[in-house]
Amino acid sequence: MFTLTKVLSLFFYPLSLGVFLIGLSLLGQLRGNRAAAGLYTFFALMVLYYPSTEFGVDAIAKPLEARYPAFSPEELPDGDTIVVLGGGIGAEGVYGRWGDLNHASDRVVSAAELWHAKKAPKIIVSGGSTQGPISEASRMAELLERLGVPAAAISLEQKSLDTEGNAREVAALTNTGSQHILLVTSSVHMRRAAAHFTAQGFRVTAAPTDHRVPRYPDAVPGWMPRIKHLDASTAAIHEWVGYWVAKQLGRFEPVVADSSEASA
């Protein structure tokens, strides 16, 4: 399913879809069909422009984030294990020393905060290697130790390459799918992630992080296209596609509870 989701997502990512439409526009120009070329150019501009605005983020990412608002550790119940999913730390740069932290590295910080608040006695970091010899789980474990979590409290799951694999391999690692877990991942990713872990028999309390829909107005007008908005919209599109693919393949039952219900 990893490959299927990745391939299908490419057809909906604004950048790849926009480039494809520009290619069609150039083809139309070469064939002398100026009307078709102009139409494809217009669609390409819209596909690239709208997701790059604050309005695009509100339309594409906000429905996913609104299902899973953030909670402080005190508002969450105690669990058996904190499970934090990979995606927040990339491979080392050519001239770098450590893994590269991206916006989703909030996941590791939130997991450490939950552990220090004694919400669960152990943390499982889940994520194999998609780039380079070092797994995402190893990089996350190293950062957790830097944040004061002892190595003895951290378990590594280093085989999985996608969300479904995260759930399957964590279930195999715990030898049971009946545990109550505090699941830590990005808010836009939580609906799909919670569905996969629930399908493995875990009782899931969502502990979402990495909320990217802005709360306050920016100094830059919302209609201005920005890379950060395009990035947030693209991440949300990936989740819409991934959830739909998994649902069509029967990998899980749709999750109806949001994080507030799960944490009650």
Give the key terms.
264 residues, alpha/beta, Rossmann fold, 5-stranded parallel sheet, 11 helices, 7 strands
Q: What is the class of the domain at 71-210 in the CATH system?
A: Alpha Beta
The neighbouring-strand order within the major sheet is 5-4-1-6-7
How many β-strand runs? 7
Radius of gyration from the alpha-carbon trace, in angstroms: 20 Å
Q: Any low-confidence stretches, pLDDT <50, length ≥5?
A: 256-264
Secondary-structure-based class equals alpha/beta
Distance N to C terminus: 33 Å
Percent strand equals 5-15%
Our count of helices gives 11
Structure description:
Helix 1 packs across helix 10 (227-248) and helix 9 (187-199) runs parallel beside helix 10. Strand 4, helix 7 (136-146) and strand 5 form a beta-alpha-beta unit. This protein has a domain at 71-210: Rossmann fold (3-Layer(aba) Sandwich), CATH 3.40.50.620. The protein is built from 11 helices and 7 strands. The chain has 264 residues and is α/β, with parallel strands linked by helices. The strands form 2 sheets. It has a 5-stranded parallel beta sheet with strand order 5-4-1-6-7, with helices on both faces. Strands 2-3 form a two-stranded antiparallel ribbon. The radius of gyration is 20 Å and the shape is elongated.
Summarize this entry quickly:
By secondary structure, this protein is α/β, with parallel strands linked by helices. It has eleven helices and seven strands.
Topology:
Blueprint: H1 2-10, H2 14-30, H3 34-49, H4 54-60, H5 62-66, E1 81-85, E2 89-90, E3 100-101, H6 106-116, E4 123-126, H7 136-146, E5 154-157, H8 163-174, E6 180-184, H9 187-199, E7 203-206, H10 227-248, H11 259-262
Parallel strand pairs: 1-4, 1-6, 4-5, 6-7
Antiparallel strand pairs: 2-3
Helix pairs in contact: 1-10, 2-3, 4-10, 8-9, 9-10
